Amino acid sequence: MKKILIVDNSKLIINVLEELFLKKNNFEIYKASSLQEVETLILSNDFFLAISNLVLPDALNGELLETFKKANVPTIVLSSKIDDNFMKTIDSLNILDYISKDSIHGLQQVVELAELILYIEKTEILVVEDSKVVAAQIKSILETLLLKVKTVCDGDEALKELKNNKNISMVISDFNMPNMDGLELTRYIRKDKQIDYLPIIIISSIDSSKEKIKLFKNGVNDFLTKPILIEELKSKVLNTFLNTKKIEDIESFNEIFSKNIISSSSDKNGMIQTVSTAFCEISGYSKDELIGKNHNILKHPDMPDSLYSELWKTIKSGQSWKGEIKNLKKDGSYYWVKAVIEPKFNKSGEIIGYFAIREDITDKKRIYELSITDGLTSLFNRRYFNDTADNFVLKTVRNNNIFAFVLLDIDNFKKYNDTYGHQDGDDVLINVSACLKDTFKRDDDQVFRLGGEEFGILLNAKTKLNIMDLVEEARDNIEKLNIKHEKNPPLNVVTASFGAVIITISENKNMKIEDIYKKADDQLYKAKENGRNRIEYLEL
């Protein structure tokens, strides 16, 4: 870590600067408030740069800057007053820069400048100038910023240097030159994909608006008028590099973000506009395959339409939506994400699209799915029933629907196992489960294997008739499986008996699932007693 020496007779200034530097944590900070302390520290340390007041009580006649100059320590000068007298004094000194210390803004500038000098140290700049005197002047000024400067006399030489030296990071060129002027040089650079990104600053003795327009329209980043003002040249070079640094910081952050965060943006119709690298990796699609497509390309059939209706309702209202979504990969497999979707607004406050970030929770979901899924039939198990049944009832109450709990049992299943064996018995359970899932396939329907040959269904509807039709369809579908069962007369095929409790929620809001379960079990017993392969209802 590079070392910085802060020198001032004000402990407040020193402490504020130290605190500002520590927030960035890019430098090791040393402090001094006397010339003697400075000399001692310089003997034992190699300082990257010094930030120093002009005078101290024991250094009233420029001894401080002379000490730094002898030790070859680049210096940023602090001053409480930048006036004509100060500027006359500073003109003769070969310093990095000078900054007012009379405000927190000035002290923040000091830190930003130090950070920028660290960023540009030994960066190579190409100066294109046919006057050796002016070229030497520019070179001297830029070297105070710790830059490496290469000078050439015209545009042709500049292009040769750019071709051979890939380390050039900026071009500063005179406008009027023999062979090739600054405008033509700019055009060549902007046409060459290998160097078209380089910032270009043009210097000219002609302050013509028309020429400036031509230069800027052809890709010049900035313009300087001769004679060169040292502070202006430094300022334009530093500002250009500061913009470059900010862009690099953003691009670096975006690259890290893209690799590690599953993100995307879409227009207000859900058409994908951008996707991160992490998004492509988890979905199996390339960017070209996703951009321009609707997000429903990833929709998994297991996800209920009601979830997406709620999602769109929320984000269209200008609110953010948070939830868990199961998505479909390109290869047909799936993954789970925890998503946050935010609307994007224009300056008028209108929604122009949406931005989403996601966390991969597939492993966590798979572990959870294993814990709530019956291993044989892939239906929900009793644990999940116990965890969710009461919430299902509450949701039905909120939506003013009619609730039903259905309990069913495969008729004479023990006799089936005894006759055909447990392997065939397992096949019956699997086939009946598939039949139930195919029948009760609406978004809110939930089917459970509660144990052995017993199954449960939670469902709701707007009318009792809707529920009765679905339950009868399930009974009929099981019978139509036409699985031979000689010990289950009179049809001698696998059948099931059903006990169903249908509840008008508005009249039974406080009923618990334990009570409902008991009543359904009573109806199932009645169906068995009344001949099996039938449905007994209790309406409350």
The average pLDDT score comes to: 92
Q: Report the major sheet.
A: 5 strands, parallel
What low-confidence regions span 5 or more consecutive residues with pLDDT below 50? none
Number of strands: 20
From the alpha-carbon coordinates, what is the Rg to the nearest angstrom? Answer: 39 Å
Query: Would you tell me the structural class of the helices and strands?
Result: alpha/beta
- State which percent range the strand residues make up: 15-25%
Strand order of the largest sheet: 2-1-3-4-5
Q: In one word, what is the shape?
A: elongated
What is the helix tally?
A: 19
Percentage of residues in helical conformation: 40-55%
Distance between the first and last residues' Cα: 77 Å
* Quaternary organisation: single chain
